[in-house]
Design a protein that fits this description.
The complex is a heterodimer. By secondary structure, chain A is an alpha/beta fold. In chain A, 38% of the residues lie in helices and 15% in strands. Chain A has 14 helices and 15 strands. The N and C termini of chain A lie far apart (52 Å). The chains are: A alpha/beta, B alpha/beta.
């Protein structure tokens, strides 16, 4: 299959118009013969039937549709049918970047609605059109903070998702930025305000804290934000939208930048991508934000319409002086989140939060009663994820769970040797009581 | 039809969408053990392998999430390479015809940008290059064919100059659709490149993402690649992590935009080597066909032939005070998306046209006729062109007001 709708007769007419006899002659007008490749050494093309059959074979080599108790940044939430139905419309799915506003009102309004949803959720004043994922959103938030404050020292929590920390390290590698990591308290699993206070001085550009943090613990964002701002540092909140149905919003505790991973809203796990990252800021930082932004305006008859705006921040105008190099982002994934949020509504999102927290609590209590499992943080206030220390063989546990189509907890020792013998469980609204009971039963017997 | 320059918009095959929706792919958690996601890893491995063959590069990472993210990855790899060699090089040469992401990515990677003026034919001149080459130069970024749609025919000489200087050559793969099976970037001297799967390999744009920007390198840069990449060992597929000190680290969480990777892999498997070559050749024929019908009416800085796209200048071709922007808006009235305009920056009143291979001759003929009619209309009935669009859901929008008093949410 090659999807070319041109006949030999068409081609002949085209060559006549161009004034060449064949492709060979046409190409020779542009490319020296010595630079040409003979042929590509790839397999022969396939029919649609062959292609489907090949990919079914690949599919069968995956172990899928497991009862998932693993999180650490990507979570198994339910995606309502309406999400795929709406974002799957070709007007959204195959459309180009909305550079021509008058012919792209659908995409532009979708982004505007998305930005509005993010502002509502986070309590912030301005959202951009999306970033690639949570990790890159945090890294770009850091760069934004450095740019806005003209200071180059950053304090970040050691309980920030380790994948995010790696991305931050890559992004800041060749820039003159100093990163200081702050420990979490071994009892609560959260950052201690006094610790932060001791590390802060007015040379710090920003403090970056995730809540719920990587280990699932809810941080005292109000206090941490205040502590940071007392020393004139910007406060960057890394948050999980699912938790915002219950927890205070970044806007309420005075965050300057709110970022996070958006997969949890309406996007399937897909091996960790594609997802999207969100970024929202205060009005003061609006012009410093990276990425595309859609604004509302009017057409020449005064009718409401939408355009890409504040574009003089961006690479296609400002080139090397742009606020970021980002161009293509994750429009469709962020639109999925917008549809998801609209479908649930604010009451639905609150109930979603509550269901996550109560199911996680149920699972936590069950596991706590199993011999060989002790909570890593005895006084942790957690959302939908928590850590246990265990003297059992973790590989064996996960092997046994897999036999029952359960994706068991994450072996934290494989992420960081400091957490050897620790397992982290994520429990979303999708997990049933039966699944949690089954999990507990297997944990008991292994 | 999307006759866009510089952003390949081709048919998005439905079968690829169907496959990508299989729950066996969509429900996989990234931290499942490798044993339980062999199918997904195999697809990634296959794509890495096929992209190597298409580009001539030795290794690929599929982690970058978009073209600009790929550029950024490539430039960090270049910085890392010199760091590993203990060599200090601070500058990147970027031709003035380059995409805006090129200098922006270089700046983000900590480099200074040296802008290189194109010669009168819109290509890089080896003579001018010599003037800016020195021991500070880490690399030069090139798009080939360039943004005028012209193949940089001095590439061998340029490559020699760059490499004799101890610098590297970066290939912006935005225009790869012109040369699949015709020229391989690695064979003509490029050391690092990115590919836009959402352009060349037919995955849908989604109104601005998700994309995917895999980066390929020659063997000597392997250790600098981000982690993880997929390898095959004892017939099993594994995630391989590079040495943390020599690699650039990690560009995003996890492994890449999987559904985009899968669709690109399916596209390559459907077309095969021959089909990909035919696709590029037809893209070149289609662009030249449109060029042949327009060249008597407009100025084409590149001349009489092009690769898969061309940039033209509408200066002097239009009536009264009608601008390229007006022509673009009038195209919307006629049911076409407007081509990229005012880019490349080196062409006055620029309009770029890239038809791609999946348009029929009938569509191309209708488009040509429409464009010629609009040029005529700009002289006979300029008001209509100036007031366009009128057939869209809104008329021309007030962008100045939008930026002056930003209203960014409800």
């Amino acid at each position: 299959m090659n999807y070319i709708p041109i006949s030999d007769k068409d081609k002949k007419e085209m060559f006549d118009s161009i004034g060449v006899k064949d492709t060979q002659e046409l190409l020779s007008l542009q490319i020296p013969e010595t630079l040409r490749v003979k042929k590509l050494n790839l397999d022969k093309g396939m029919s649609e039937q062959e292609l489907i059959s090949l990919f079914k074979q690949y599919a069968q080599k995956n172990k899928s549709n497991l009862a998932c108790f693993r999180g650490a940044g990507i979570y198994d939430h339910f995606v309502p049918s309406i999400v795929d139905e709406i974002i799957g419309r070709s007007e959204f799915w195959t459309a180009y970047t909305p550079y021509q506003a008058e012919a792209s009102q659908g995409t532009l309004q979708a982004i505007f609605e998305y930005q509005s949803v993010i502002c509502e959720l986070t309590g912030m004043e301005c959202s951009n059109a999306s970033m690639y994922d949570g990790a890159t959103a945090v890294a770009e938030a850091l760069l934004l903070a450095v740019r806005a404050s003209r200071k180059n020292k950053i304090i970040l929590s050691k309980a920030l998702n380790p994948e995010y920390i790696s991305v931050i390290e890559t992004y800041t590698k060749n820039l003159n930025i100093e990163i200081i990591k702050i420990d979490i308290d071994s009892k609560t699993g959260a950052i201690n305000k006094e610790n932060l206070s001791g590390m802060l001085d007015e040379s710090v550009a920003a403090v970056i804290v995730q809540s719920p943090n990587f280990f699932g613990t809810i941080e005292d964002m109000q206090e941490l934000s205040k502590t940071a701002k007392d020393k004139k540092a910007l406060f960057v909140a890394v948050v999980n939208p699912v938790s915002l149905g219950l927890l205070k919003t970044p806007g309420e505790y005075g965050a300057d930048i709110a970022v996070g991973e958006g997969q949890v809203f309406g996007n399937q796990m897909y091996l960790g991508g594609s997802t999207f990252g969100f970024m929202a800021v205060t009005k003061a930082l609006e012009w410093k934000m990276p990425g595309r932004i859609v604004g509302q305006t009017v057409d020449k008859d005064g009718k409401r319409g939408f355009v890409l705006t504040l574009q003089s921040r961006e690479q296609h105008i400002r080139r090397e002086k742009a606020t970021s190099n980002i161009c293509t982002n994750a429009a469709l994934n962020s639109f999925a989140a917008c549809v998801y949020a609209a479908y649930l509504g604010s009451q639905g999102i609150k109930e979603l939060s509550e269901t996550n927290i109560s199911k996680a609590r149920y699972a936590f209590d069950k596991i706590k009663n199993i011999k060989g499992f002790v909570p890593l943080f005895e006084n942790s206030l957690f959302f939908n994820e928590f850590v246990f220390k265990t003297d059992k063989n973790i590989d064996k546990i996960n092997e046994e769970l897999m036999k029952e189509n359960i994706l068991g907890p994450l072996d934290l020792g494989k992420i960081d040797s400091k957490y050897k013998n620790c397992v982290m469980f994520a429990v979303t609204e999708k997990r049933t009581k039966q699944e949690i009971d089954k999990l507990a039963e297997i944990l008991t017997r292994v | 039809m999307y006759p866009l320059g510089s952003c390949t918009m081709k048919h998005n095959p439905l079968v690829n969408e169907k496959i990508a929706k299989f729950e066996e792919f969509s429900s996989i958690h990234p931290y499942q053990n490798e044993e339980s996601m062999q199918g997904s890893l195999e697809i990634m491995y296959e794509l890495q392998k096929d992209l190597c063959e298409i580009s001539g590069m030795d290794y690929f990472t599929l982690q970058p999430a978009a073209g600009a993210h790929g550029e950024y990855t490539g430039l960090l790899i270049i910085a890392q390479y010199f760091k590993n060699k203990n060599e200090k090089r601070t500058k990147i040469i970027v031709p003035d015809s380059a995409h805006g992401t090129n200098p922006a990515s270089a700046a983000l990677s900590g480099f200074e940008i040296v802008s290189l003026k194109s010669d009168e034919n819109g290509i890089v001149s080896p003579e001018k290059l010599k003037e800016v080459l020195n021991s500070d130069v880490a690399a030069m970024m090139m798009t080939n064919p360039n943004t005028l749609g012209v193949f940089e025919k001095n590439i061998e000489e340029i490559s020699k100059l760059i490499h004799d200087n101890g610098s590297l050559l970066y290939y912006d793969g935005a225009n790869l659709n012109a040369v699949m099976g015709i020229v391989r970037p690695a064979d003509i001297g490029f050391d690092v490149m990115h590919i836009n799967l959402h352009k060349t390999f037919s995955t849908p744009h989604g109104g601005g993402g998700p994309g995917s920007g895999p980066v390929g390198v020659k063997a000597f840069l392997k250790e600098c690649l981000p982690s993880p990449v997929v390898i095959k060992e004892d017939n099993k597929f594994k995630l391989y992590f590079n040495d943390g000190k020599k690699s650039i680290g990690r560009m995003k969480a996890f492994y890449g935009n999987f559904p985009v990777i899968l669709k690109a892999c399916a596209y390559i498997k459907s077309l095969g080597g021959e089909g990909l070559t035919q696709a590029s050749k037809q893209a070149v024929i289609n662009a030249n066909y449109i060029l042949s019908k327009l060249k008597s009416k407009v100025k084409v800085p590149a001349g009489n032939s092009c690769m898969h796209e061309f940039a033209m200048s509408l200066k002097g071709a239009l009536g009264g005070d009608i601008k390229t922007l007006d022509v673009a808006k009038r195209l919307l009235d006629n049911g076409y998306y407007a081509p990229t305009i005012y880019f490349p920056l080196i062409v006055e009143e620029a309009m770029m046209i890239e038809p791609t291979e999946t348009e029929s001759k009938q569509t191309l003929d209708e488009f040509i006729e429409t464009l010629l009619n609009i040029i005529e209309e700009s002289k006979t009935n300029p008001e209509v062109v100036h007031n366009a669009p009128v057939n869209t859901s809104v008329k021309r929008l007030n962008e100045v007001e939008a930026a002056r008093k930003p209203k960014l949410h409800w």
